[in-house]
Amino acid sequence: MSTTTDDSTTKDGATTRDRLKGVFAYALDLDPSVQIEELRYREIDKWDSLGHMALVAAIEDEFGVQFDTDQVIEMSGFKVAYDMLRGMGLGD
């Protein structure tokens, strides 16, 4: 999706938060009207167990990280995913 620089932004200036929103929108095929930052696991039909694994894989690919099993299970919303990335040194 994006090419990163040496900090938490892409070459086009996108922040980690913006990039993560893009990953959520792409992986879950979200309508533009969805409030991504408020989204929670199983709140919409597309974020079921299969959607969750697709989302996790897309986040890992976009940010070059790997989540452990506990993190995958705990990833219950956008904020949780963003906080996990911040904990990995990728926050804005």
Order of helices and strands: HHHH
Q: How many DSSP helices?
A: 4
Largest sheet: number of strands, sense, barrel closure: none
- Output mean pLDDT: 89
User: What structural category characterises the helix and strand content?
Assistant: mainly alpha
Task: Please provide a written account of the structure.
This protein is mainly α and 92 residues long. It is built from four helices and no strands. α1 runs antiparallel to α2 (49-63) and α1 packs across α4. The two termini are 18 Å apart.
Short description:
The protein has 92 residues and is mostly helical. It has helices at 16-27, 49-63, 69-74, 78-87.
Spell out the blueprint of helices and strands.
Blueprint: H1 16-27, H2 49-63, H3 69-74, H4 78-87
Helix pairs in contact: 1-2, 1-4
What structural keywords apply?
mainly alpha; 0% strand
